[in-house]
Write a structure and sequence with these properties.
about 700 residues; alpha/beta; Rossmann fold; 6-stranded mixed beta sheet; 4-stranded antiparallel beta sheet; about 50% helix; binds adenosine-5'-triphosphate; membrane
Length: about 700
């Protein structure tokens, strides 16, 4: 039996979760109960109200009247529920018009020792209309992704020109535009350890908040997955999906908030022909429901090419063709470039774009510009800022033309439509994104779930600490209380700090590097704010590091015979843990700031640099120019802390074995004096470590914020 049929026959009562605390509990529940997407509620009985308004989010995916002959209560086609019976609610049409889009990048020229500017896009004009699926095509390096990034608002610095959304100017990084759109980048950047349903559930909670009930959310998830052909994959971990399924999941995750505009960067890359066709036909259906869908694509098959309504071709940063897909060949034909019979039109266009068949690319670019102004000159008053283009247009002595008149009429009709609202105005308006606290709780829960699934990494971290502690413990077995083994103990203490610092730092130095793509996608598509995200990472990572450090400390401290009393042990453990957490905060900062290649060697280099201060280096012997490093070295502060906990704090004489004639460090103060650490201010050291931790966290958040927002 069709899975969805069983749902209709077994409706489940609505579980309305309205308060956040209950909702959090329900979140966990939902993640487990909805893990099997094929066993959930029958929501289809929930119909539009008498006045036609939807009464619940469930209505958001309602029956297509045209296919059902207007009978909204009928749920089956000949007893079978078809994917095409569903559609997302119509959204207000959102049209995008852009003019004179230029993009400059600044590069430092080492030879000339100055910054140089390079223009990537050279004044692109055009529009993307609602209800249409538009392909951005062009040769590699032509500027397709750059144009898409600018249109999505993903890139804003270095961009000039005007973008209008339903006739209203939009800034290049408009926050309100981001509410209406979503951007799915080339790399799916999904969370591999979550199942499809878990990923969808978490995204639904984050995007739709807790103003609507769990049951409604569950039904929404089921239907989106059903529409996208993922209904059988609810329990599959994301990493177990095929390339095409991952693309569809990436779309499904964004369809939760039902945005009227979708930007997709190369959604078909890496897919086989049938997955490509599935993906494009899905986009086509979403466009037919009134969405504005724009995607970049590399030479598609003739079949796929025909599925696009509009084509925008970029070559060397110029517009090469824009208009209906079916008019592309006549356009090139008018210029004398005729597509051979049985040749893929998309391939032919790309061949012309790279100058094959002796094609004059410049001529086509000028013709495309002329065509644009032929249409535009009848419809809009050209802005004075486009003087250059106006002159260019005049130089082509634009005449009248039937086709241009027709296009103009269409554009006027569209403008009338455009006067409709630019705001969200359907049932989704009753949903609000999760609050900051709930964002934190949801992200923390998600991290916890992923860590539990990926337990091998955690297991390795714990085992490594225990193993090294045992090795060190036996290497320096029982050296702690002996006066003749003070130097051996000193090396053990130094090694322990190294262990704490390296494991603390290196365990997280790549965290953000690995996370960055997912973080960028989710943050850009407004799933959550940076603050709750960062906090959710810290709240998981800090306890793990504390546990690992304590495992090391407990084992090695006892094996080396350093245990004297509980007070000394607690201070020792406190400084070890504080040093490790401080190193971890440095790891986050280095990882967030530098590229992978730099981070993996700058991280250890910084640790080595700071570690020399305090170890066999007396303050008086340090070259004055480096003395500041002694003061800010968290390594030195932690090391002195553990040293003082072992030999300071009025410790009595150490044990001098009878076999020894003389034990120089019988009184540990002598050793402290030799090392210039007889006056360790424990409080100042601890405060210094805490200050560095806080500074590093703030710096990391700032760097991440900058990377996520300033592009
Ligand atoms: N930030 C940047 N700094 C320097 N050059 C850049 C930058 N962004 C884009 N470019 C250059 O602009 C050109 C267009 O890049 P873009 O990624 O948009 O090309 P594309 O058409 O999407 O290519 P592909 O199909 O290969 O992905 C390339 O030559 C690229 O090197």
């Amino acid at each position: 039996m069709n899975v969805q049929q069983s749902e209709v026959r077994n409706p489940r009562p609505t579980n309305n979760v309205s308060n956040p605390t209950a909702a959090m509990a329900a979140t966990a529940l939902a993640i487990t109960t909805t893990a099997n997407t094929t066993s959930s509620s029958g929501a289809f009985g929930c119909c539009p109200t008498a006045n036609g308004e939807s009464s619940s989010i469930d209505d958001s995916i309602e029956l297509n009247d045209s296919q059902e002959g207007g009978n909204n209560n009928t749920l089956y086609h000949n007893g079978l529920l078809e994917k095409q019976d569903y559609h997302f609610p119509k959204r207000p049409p959102v049209d995008i018009v852009f003019r004179d889009i230029r993009y400059d990048v600044k590069r430092f020229n080492i030879a000339k020792a100055k910054f140089e500017s390079k223009e990537i896009l050279h004044g692109l004009n055009g529009s993307f209309k609602s209800g249409e699926l538009t392909a951005i095509m062009g040769p590699s390096g032509a500027g397709k992704s750059t144009l898409l990034n600018i249109m999505a608002g993903y890139v804003s610095s270095g961009v000039s020109g005007m973008v209008q959304v339903n006739g209203k100017s939009r800034s290049h990084n408009s926050e309100s535009f981001r509410k209406l759109s979503c951007y799915i980048q080339q790399h799916d950047a999904l969370r591999p350890w979550l199942t499809v349903t878990e990923a969808m559930t978490c995204a639904t909670h984050l995007k739709l908040g807790f103003g609507i009930g769990m049951a409604e959310k569950r039904r929404l998830i089921e239907k989106i997955l059903f529409m996208l052909g993922l209904e059988q994959k609810g329990n599959t971990p994301t990493m177990g999906l095929s390339g095409g399924q991952k693309k569809r999941l990436a779309i499904a995750l964004e369809m939760i908030s039902n945005p009227p505009i979708l930007f997709l960067d190369e959604p078909t890359t890496g897919l086989d022909s049938s997955s490509c066709a599935q993906c494009i036909s899905l986009l086509k259906r979403l466009a037919q429901d009134g969405r504005t869908i724009v995607c970049t694509i590399h030479t598609p098959s003739a079949l796929l090419f025909e599925m696009f309504d509009q084509l925008y071709t970029v070559v060397q940063g110029h517009c090469f063709y824009q208009g209906p897909t079916k008019e592309m060949l006549p356009f090139l034909g008018d210029l004398g470039y005729h597509c051979p019979s049985y040749h893929n039109p998309a391939d032919f266009m790309m061949e012309i774009a790279v100058g094959e068949y002796g094609a004059d690319v410049g001529k086509v670019i000028k013709a495309a510009l002329k065509k644009y102004y032929e249409i535009s000159s009848r419809c809009i008053e050209l802005d004075s800022t486009f003087d250059d283009n106006v002159k260019l247009m005049e130089s082509y002595s634009i005449g009248g033309g039937g086709k241009a008149e027709e296009m103009c009429k269409l554009q006027k009709q569209q403008e009338a439509l455009d006067n409709s609202s630019y705001e969200e105005d359907d049932i989704f308006s009753k949903t609000k994104p999760a609050s900051l606290v709930m964002q934190f709780l949801l992200l923390f829960y998600r991290n916890l779930l992923m860590t539990r699934r990926n337990y091998f990494l955690l297991f390795c971290r714990i085992i490594a600490h225990a193993a090294v502690a045992t090795i060190f413990g036996y290497l320096y077995l029982g050296v702690g209380p002996n006066a003749n083994q003070v130097l051996a103990n000193y090396v053990y203490l130094y090694g322990s700090m190294l262990m704490m610092v390296y494991t603390g730092k290196m365990a997280v130095v790549l965290s953000f590097q690995i996370e960055m793509e997912s973080l960028t996608r989710e943050h850009f598509n407004r799933w959550y704010k940076l603050g709750p995200y960062f906090l959710s990472v810290l709240v998981l990572e800090i306890p793990i590091q504390i546990c690992c450090s304590l495992i090391y400390v407990v084992i090695s401290y006892h094996l080396t015979g350093n245990y004297v009393n509980m007070e000394r042990f607690c201070i020792f453990a406190l400084f070890c843990v504080a040093g490790s957490i401080c190193a971890q905060s440095w790891g986050f900062f280095v990882g967030a700031t530098l590229s992978v290649k730099l981070a993996v060697f700058i991280g250890p280099i910084l640790a080595v640099l700071f570690s020399v201060f305090g170890f066999c280096t007396r303050y008086v012997d340090i070259t004055p120019v480096f003395k500041w490093m002694w003061h800010i070295s968290y390594y030195r502060a932690s090391f002195h802390g553990i040293m003082n906990s072992v030999y300071g704090m009025n410790r009595g004489d150490l044990h001098c074995p009878e076999t020894q004639i003389y034990c120089h460090f019988k009184n540990p103060v002598l050793f402290q004096k030799d090392m210039d650490i007889e006056h360790v201010d424990m409080q100042s050291n601890f405060v210094l470590i805490m200050l560095i931790i806080i500074t590093m966290y703030i710096s990391t958040v700032f760097v991440l914020w900058y990377k996520l927002n300033k592009r």
